[in-house]
Specification:
With 685 residues, this protein is α/β, with parallel strands linked by helices. 32% of the residues lie in helices and 18% in strands. Strands 5-4-18-17-16-6-7 form a 7-stranded mixed beta sheet, sandwiched between helices.
Length: 685
């Protein structure tokens, strides 16, 4: 038996674990005791990691479509055919007729090569990853307001907060270890304020629950800002020395009334006032949020509104303070860091004005020197734009690495039509997901346990993963797959190791410049920015001044959700994650204990609404929106308010995103999957 240290592959917390293997199979998992993240604890998903790694459903050989069917083939055939098709499409059309989507389950090294493949081997900026469906507004919003798009404070620093505002997030289900840190803080005297349309589990520990109407976040946040300004609870010295546009911001609240905010949010104005006072006076105060803030067509504005609160009160750059987005997938932070986006290079070097960034000719020149090819001149497409482009016929080929677009993208029927309209589709994955089933070529990829590299967790901590077992069957790491296909396309990528890729990557990524594999091993991970080898990293951002020079106040306007209930669709529908499953469920759904707890999709409905529509507990119900309908079991609970339906996104066999709205935040490209108009009825089957 062999025991190897590595990092949990599920959420963005980045728990340190040991995997035990025997005879080429992972047979056990243990939490690491000596670290600041999970210190001898794991959630239920973490404890059940081993099963999916060697599950019988794992892809073990490449697949190629012949006579309409996916059939096994040799690697040489799959690679040669893929290269030929991509080169044909590139030559007959243009490089911009091809799109590449990376995966947050890939390592930093693999994600770096994914964007390099798109830009250097193909010649397009059509490169994106799953931040586009979750935390893209965090990147655009926080960079615009503060100059950096990362979580400002470490996970272990939560205990230092006197007050925590948890808004649009449910860590108990999505980040259980972080929820434990929050509960520990409460036990030591921290006050928790939860703002959420649902009564989530952490509400049981909270001093206040602000049960706002879906999509009314900006109205609530603006009302809190007004209270802080009107009652002189601002940190004037901080504002004077560290911010800009305050007077314009202050003036914008002149005519805002708490009565109007009460009407929009459904929260009593005195509760809003009390929450604002506690946040502004019981310092240090921390804001924690997740996708309930970002997954709206006003997602960027929502994030910037929260940044306003930190700037008003000086709750930034100090222990126990800050604005802390919790990343959902294990390496979505790394995907952003590596420049897996159509408008920026590794290290958040912008190639277009998005997020207020300017094209940096010096950076582009250095990128060209490293990659040895001219840089693509045009800004690329974000994932929703690739989908639209495929529907129009402009995007003719895509390579999707480890993402199940047909399960995770809003308005899934639209995504399905887009993939059907492609001339050529490559998918790399562990399993034959709904998206992989539609591919022309499928590459069998490795799990995290079968390769070397690094992940960057939600607190910006770069950590090492280690190879525990040999790749299953003929599966390969994404690093190897990208390198092999790139070489077939006449752009050789020849690396001896993941470490060699890391060294090249950090030459283009200032935040990682002082990090190396040896330091990561000896120091237990390093939080970027770490610009020099003598730097210890940066646990707390903005501690020596706001990264952009001065924090910028922004005037966010409240806008109703794109869809509001009406006679035909009288409910709001919201979506999220559940404790026992992860993302599209391709890994957790193949884990016996997790699947036993929740084996199928469901809809939460308030008892009052269930009685009104004659729906019984666990009875089949049809949930419909303007985009489609699905039949699921009903779960009757007062966790949801009257007029609100809630469904998980984690079941690839019953895709909730058939229903959700793809209305897009123009600044970040995220879709409004958190709120749309819906109807429910008893199933007639």
């Amino acid at each position: 038996m062999k025991r190897v240290s590595t990092i949990c592959p599920y959420c963005g917390t980045g728990c340190n674990i040991y995997l035990t293997s025997k005879n080429g199979r992972v047979v056990g998992v243990y939490p690491s005791r000596h670290n600041e993240i999970n210190s001898a604890k794991l959630c239920v998903k973490g404890w059940n990691i081993p099963e999916f790694i060697t599950h019988p459903d794992r892809l073990k050989k490449p697949l190629i479509r012949k006579n309409g069917e996916l059939t096994e083939c040799e690697w040489e055939e799959a690679l040669a055919f893929s290269a030929q098709k991509l080169l044909e499409i590139k030559t007959k059309n243009s490089p911009d007729a091809i799109g590449v989507i990376g995966s947050a389950r890939c390592t930093n090294e693999e994600l770096y090569l994914a964007q390099k493949f798109a830009r250097a081997a193909i010649g397009t900026n059509n490169i994106d990853h799953c931040a586009r469906i979750c935390h893209a507004p965090t990147v655009t919003g926080l960079i615009a307001s503060l100059g950096s798009g990362g979580m400002t404070n470490p996970i272990h620093d939560i205990k230092n907060a006197k007050t925590i505002i948890l808004i649009g997030g449910n860590p108990f289900e999505a980040h259980p270890i972080i929820a434990g840190h929050i509960i520990d803080a409460i036990d030591n005297g921290t006050e928790l304020i939860v703002a959420d349309p649902r009564r989530t589990r952490l509400c049981d520990f909270a001093a206040m629950h602000l049960q706002l109407n879906p999509g009314s976040d900006i109205a609530l946040i603006n009302a809190m800002a007004k209270v802080i300004i009107d009652e002189n609870l601002t940190d004037q010295e901080f504002i004077k020395n560290n911010t800009e546009k305050y007077e314009e911001f202050k003036e914008s609240f002149k005519d805002l009334s708490l009565e109007e905010a009460q009407f929009i949010t459904g929260i009593d104005k005195e509760k809003i006032r009390l929450a604002a006072r506690r946040y502004a006076t019981q310092k240090p105060s921390s804001i924690i949020y997740t996708l309930g803030i970002t997954e709206h067509y006003t997602g960027t504005a929502n994030v910037r509104a929260l940044a306003n609160l930190t700037l008003l009160t000086g709750n930034i750059g100090k222990p126990g303070s800050g604005i802390n987005p919790l990343r959902g997938q294990n390496n979505v932070q790394g995907g952003c860091d590596m420049g897996v986006a159509p408008f920026m290079l590794p290290g958040y070097k912008f190639i277009s004005p998005l997020c207020g960034g300017n094209s940096d000719k010096k950076t582009i020149k250095k990128y060209e020197e490293v990659c040895r090819v001219p840089f693509p001149p045009q800004q690329g497409f974000m994932t929703p734009q690739m989908i639209e482009g495929a529907l129009r016929g402009d995007i003719k080929a895509m390579w999707i690495m480890g993402e199940d677009l047909l399960t995770t993208e809003a308005n899934a029927h639209k995504s399905q039509k887009a993939l059907e309209n492609l001339h050529f589709l490559i998918v790399s994955d562990l399993f034959l997901t709904p998206t992989a089933q539609r591919a022309d070529v499928v590459f069998p990829a490795c799990t995290f346990a079968e390769k070397e590299g690094t992940f960057t967790n939600t607190e910006r901590r770069v950590q090492r993963i280690h190879k525990v077992i040999e790749p299953l069957g003929e599966s390969k790491s994404d690093l190897e797959i990208i390198s092999l296909l790139s070489s077939k396309m006449n752009y050789p990528m020849e690396y001896e190791s993941a470490e060699e890729v890391f060294e090249e990557m950090k030459s283009l990524t200032p935040q990682y410049a002082g990090i190396n594999y040896g330091r990561i091993e000896s120091e237990g991970g390093i939080q970027w920015p770490c610009p020099r080898e003598d730097s210890k990293g940066t646990p707390i951002l903005h501690s020596e001044g706001i990264a952009r020079g001065k924090g910028e106040f922004y005037v966010p306007e409240f806008l109703e959700p794109r869809e509001i209930p009406d006679e035909k669709f009288p409910f709001y529908l919201s979506t999220g994650r559940i404790l026992f499953h992860y993302n599209c469920g391709s890994m957790s759904g193949r884990t016996t204990r997790l699947a036993r707890e929740f084996s199928e999709n469901f809809v939460m409905i308030n008892p009052e609404d269930a009685r009104r529509f004659g729906i019984e507990e666990h009875e089949e119900a049809v949930v419909s929106t303007r985009r489609g309908e699905i039949t699921v079991r009903a779960k009757i609970t007062d966790e949801t308010a009257p007029g609100l339906l809630w469904m998980p996104i984690n079941f690839y066999k019953s895709r909730t995103n058939v229903l959700t709205n793809d209305a897009m935040d123009e600044k970040s490209g995220v879709s409004e999957v958190k709120v749309c108009a819906a109807a429910i009825k008893r199933s007639e089957k």
